[in-house]
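Quick entry, no commentary yet.
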Amino acid sequence: MPDLYDGPIIDAHHHVWDLGLGRHPWLAPGARVAHRYGDYEPIKRDYLPADYLRDIAGTGVVASVYMEAEWVPGDGMAEVLTIERYREESGVPGSMVAQAWLDAPDAAERLAELAAMPAVKSVRHKPGGATSHAEAEAGVRSLLSDDSWREGYARLAGHGLHFDLQTPWWNLDDAHRLAADFPETTIVIDHAGVLASRDDETVTAWRAALGRVAEAPNVVIKASGLCVAGTPWTVEANRGPIEDLVRIFGAERVMFGSNFPVDGMFIDFRGLVDGYREILSAFDSDAQRAVFHDTAQRVYDPRPLIDAIS
């Protein structure tokens, strides 16, 4: 068995936020939105680059990718400019995924603005759709199949932007069709296709859905967001899903993401990284480096922290 990975790490999915700005409605006092993790009250606090840097200290993280954090809808450029200021002041993040409403009347203009920002490598627009496997089987479709939304999506390739897709695994057949129709655009599946439980039936169906969407070569996936409501993050609970991701997609199409501070409700950053190191030691050193660093480097090209502070 290979040694535990001790090389550089890129965190391909994290947030930072200043709640004093009042730009995150879901994190406002008294706000409650449906969340797969249940009660998220513990993360209703500022989480700034200094907090993130403290969390990653000594873990091997050399660069990071910011994920849009449900900023006030339609105000994505303001979020990008805020994060860009953090980036220049602290080096966090190295690159970013921006909010973009692909079915908005001004989508063309907004995408052009975002693409002009060098740190923006991808956009995210959660597509809604079926809220259960049964609804998906009954024919409930997401925005991934909507003609107006797809017109916006079609513009991404021209701007060299990727698309980050956060949707439950039962909507991934829509994603497979989207990937086939727009082969020049990379789809990054966030949070491993949102595996919110570990019962055998769910895991089997999730694994099958991943196998189908992995047939599209322009799809990659994040090993992130794998916590389960009410359950601590453990190696035992996550070994199977993480190994499945690597075996289904190949290590060169899988990347580590912390989803901090959200997943910090379940485990500290060092514990998370050490858990991934233990799980990924089942694979050879090249595969480990791909998941921890090379895939995210290729997809997001984040500026390293050492370059930002030197």
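second:
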Amino acid sequence: MNTTKRPIVTGIDGSGEALDAVRWAGRAARLRDVPLEIVHALDFPALLAGGVVPPPEEMKDTLRAHGQRYLRAAQEIAEAQGTTAVTTRLDPDRAAQALIEASRTAALVVVGSGGRGRLTGLLAGSVASAVGAHAACDVVVVRGDSWDDPEVADRPVVAGIDGSEPSARILAAAVAEARARKTRLVVVHASADEPRPETEPHLDPQAATEAGEQLLGELTGEHEAGGITVERVVVRGHPRRELIERSATAQLVVLGDRGRGGFPGLLLGSTGQALLHNAACPVYLVRTVS
């Protein structure tokens, strides 16, 4: 084990969704041969009476004791996935802030799709949304009810490629995941994206399909000899709809945290937001801006 590698970081709050994230993160750490760090946020800022009066130490001690129990249980779950280098940490901050800060030195942050304090009707938890938008590294949001089933190992990794500048980075992450999981990779380009600026030339459907095939051929050509099967798919459809549908038969969907139509200040692309709320499997968001 090379413990000098950047760790995978995951958060635990005692919820079932967080335990799913620990299981997924534990397996990912084993596949990558990297350490795993499990963080429990104590959320002391929420206890400030009137925003200024700190809580009594007895209350803090109780929260620490609960947090240590959560961490011990999470560590046992992680080690059961074959992860050998597991560390745990209590953080006094709020969950999202603690994980975003940890992302500065992490290889990957893994979060559950919801958690304690989730508002009724909120499909992707506020922590998952905040970390997906603000983390300094790639983020995985563990979604779906069947990702842990044994037969899921035979499902492909699906990558959404839109032709934007970060497409090569997204593809590289997807290839690495497919290789680690010893499964095939399906690279999808949906050519009927959002309306194009008037300055861009309009392509008829046949030309758009040919352009998409050329794009995927150029991007994937160098990877096909790398020991995995790569399937290229060009469709006339909206990316979010296509990727959501394919997530039902995938073990992981990989895409960029911002899309081709992104603009300065856009924290998470519309396709990423849609997948965080509706995907049937874990979603891997590749950090595309530094």
